[in-house]
Amino acid sequence: MNSTGGSARQKGGNMNNRKNLVLTALLLASAGVMTAGDVWARRVSVGVGVHSGGSFFSLGVNSGGRHGHRPPVRFRRPFHPPPVVCAPPVVCAPAVLTAGRWIEREERVWIEGCWLESVDACGRRCKIWRPGRWEIRRVREWVY
Q: Is the pTM of this model over 0.90?
């Protein structure tokens, strides 16, 4: 017993138990990481920091160090562009008309009267009125 009436405790006993527990947990975790297999060990890394003087403990886990993780190439789905849909081509066949024939016919056409410029025997320019008249013209038509 001490002078305050309590039992005497050993200095640092509780802290030593805590350090031993942490070290044991770290050893078990590192053993688990080592036995986890090749695939998991390539993707995960574990870091441990222990400081004995000021009760400092640090544990870090890294999942491969890649930001924006993408699965390996073998897991990606291949890109297939959407199918191109085109309208069928427009087929325009020429019209073949075999039932029909050409005919020529005459028709009367009115020609309006007009002024004609001419030069007389003395070299002067003069205008002469030519009156309107009927002309006969030939017209060719296709008849079915």
A: no
